[in-house]
Amino acid sequence: MMCVISIRASKRLNLRAVKRLLHTPMSFIDNTPVGRILNRFTRDVDCLDSQLVENLRLFVYQVSNITGILVMCIIYLPWFAIVIPFMVLIFLLVVDYYQSSAREVKRLEAVQRSFVYSNFNEVLGGISTIKAFRSERRFLKKSDFLIDRMNEASYLVIVLQRWVSICLDSIAILLALVITLLCVTRQFDISAASVGVLLTYVLQLPGLLNGLLRAMTLGENDMNSVERIVNYATELPQEAAYRKPEMTPQEPWPSNGEVVFDNVSLSYRPGLPLVLKGVSLNIKGGEKIGICGRTGAGKSTIMSALYRLCELNEGRVLIDGVDTSKLGLYDLRRKLSIIPQDPVLFKGSIRKNLDPFGEREDEELWSALVRSGTIEAEEVEKVKNQHRDESGSSTGLHKFHLDQEVEDDGTNFSLGERQLLALTRALVRQSKILILDEATSSVDYETDAKIQSLIAQEFNRCTILCIAHRLKTILNYDRLVVLDNGTVKEFDTPRSLFCMQDTIFREMCDKSGIKAEDFPEEQP
Ligand code: ATP
Ligand code: MG
Predict the structure, then answer these.
(1) Measured between alpha carbons, how far is 168 from 162 in angstroms, rounded to an integer?
(2) Which long-range contacts (CB under 8 A, 24 or more apart) does 237-241 make?
(3) What confidence tier does 524 reach under pLDDT thresholds 50, 70, 90?
(4) Which of 94, 125, 351, 420 is least buried, going by the fewest C-beta atoms within 10 A?
(5) How far is CA 298 from the centre of its chain?
(6) Which residue, by CA, sits nearest to atom 16 of ligand 1?
(7) 312: which DSSP letter?
(8) How many whole angstroms from its chain centre is CA 289?
(9) Percentage of the residues of the chain whose pLDDT score is greater than 70
(10) Nearest one of 29, 498, 453 to 237, comparing CA atoms
(11) Is the Cβ atom of 25 under 6 angstroms away from ligand 1?
């Protein structure tokens, strides 16, 4: 019964914690080390699943065993009942004394242990550097030193355990002694057989008391894990509502793709300085907008504002006249596509990566792969006919076959290839608004040009916001925004920005050697 109850409780807590974690604001993720989050969902959950119930069970088992023995003693020797309150009191005092020091020493040990682990991690990460500088000895010494420090603390832990176990044994043996003397000196009239029974059980007390203490200590430790998970399950800060059925705009929203930034100010967290300061932009449906500016000017932050990764301090963002801050996040984010500065791929097949919710036909995915240029149009029929070999391995497949395996974080693809896949994903999604954050920063010039012409072709009805460091990529865009220090400095067509003197854009063009001829002919 305890197993069932505890597994159920653990499952529910875990699910609630995961759910809450998925809806925390970005600032929480920025502020919290990943290791800490992982620890909650690995060590703490494991503790709830498998250790806590075992320790609770042991606790109940020992308590009932001891109670049984004491009751039996009282039945045979009623006077013995007087000793019990004192015995319980002494037990509690000893345990309390022990726990308060043991807790601190354990904490010390945990701190020292984490030094050892993190040092080990660092050494593994930098092993080639260490070898190059022939500093193995230095790091061995450091590691030895840290392990010694950890052992100093571990030694104390064990010493304390020995101490308490001697104390408890003494109490129990004292009891046994009293009972034995009472029996042997025939203070009460009980038979020899009964004395045998009594002594057999009373002599088990030392072991049982120690077991009880162990179960109590471990149970208390496990409860710390419970506390941490309950904290995640109930107290994590949450983003704005994910779904708001009453606010869902009528499909097909956004049909036009008009984006308006109305005096938007934003800081990443309360207390941090404003990153966007009163940004106002009026972007018509279907316009191609290039965004440039120095590093740290706030370009990526415009995207965060659009996605509501952090809420605006002031102002509004309107898409086709709908104030995005009033929508559920699901409705908003579903309608935007982004190729972020560092594209994310998941472990799984390419098919899963392009269409995580399994909403599209394979044909659409293939055609998107061809249109994005990842697979040549002539090859595609041949590639389609490739299949995994018998063992299910994907090594024989084309690099971008839908069944090709993607490793964690897409490490088996280069950055450029990952950007291409992210572009393909955007093609599949067919959103009205597309955001490119340095989407082509890691592909060669030729591919970049190819992608740009592809974007012009495939997304010609979409509103595109493109951030680019290579100015050449955005010269043929409709209008350019130049951001500086969180404010819009310039917002006009590339040619007029270039022709005006003293614009930041002109300065940047001069620096990267862009001349008037590089601009596309203006269309009448
Ligand atoms: P880059 O060209 O290097 O991509 P950017 O224009 O995209 O630069 P942003 O990423 O928008 O720059 O950053 C603008 C400012 O916001 C920076 O000064 C940075 O310190 C701050 N900032 C960015 N992300 C965060 C964050 N998650 N938390 C706190 N501050 C941030
Ligand atoms: Mg950026």
Answers:
(1) 10
(2) 237/24, 237/25, 237/28, 238/20, 238/23, 238/24, 238/25, 239/23, 239/24, 239/25, 239/308, 239/329, 240/308, 240/311, 240/325, 240/328, 240/329, 241/328, 241/329
(3) very low
(4) 125
(5) 25
(6) 275
(7) -
(8) 33
(9) 99
(10) 29
(11) no
| CA–CA–CA angle 445, 447, 451 (5° rounding) | 115
Q: In terms of DSSP bridges, do strands 336-339 and 288-293 run parallel, antiparallel, or are they unpaired?
A: unpaired
User: What is the pLDDT averaged over residues 483-501?
Assistant: 88
**What is the number of the ligand closest to the CA of 291?**
1
- Closest residue to atom 23 of ligand 1, CA basis: 301
At residue 109, the 3 state secondary structure works out as helix
* Ligand 1 pocket residue status of 342, Cβ below 6 Å: no
Q: Where does the pLDDT of residue 522 fall: very low under 50, low under 70, confident under 90, or very high at 90 and above?
A: low
Phi, psi of 249 (to 5 degrees): -70, 160
Give the pairing type, strands 348-349 and 405-406: antiparallel
Q: Give residue 268 CA to ligand 2 midpoint distance, Å.
A: 14
Kindly report the number of other CB atoms within 10 A of residue 330's CB atom.
Answer: 13
Highest mean pLDDT of the ranges 7-11, 217-221, 374-378: 7-11
Ligand nearest to the CA of 484: 1
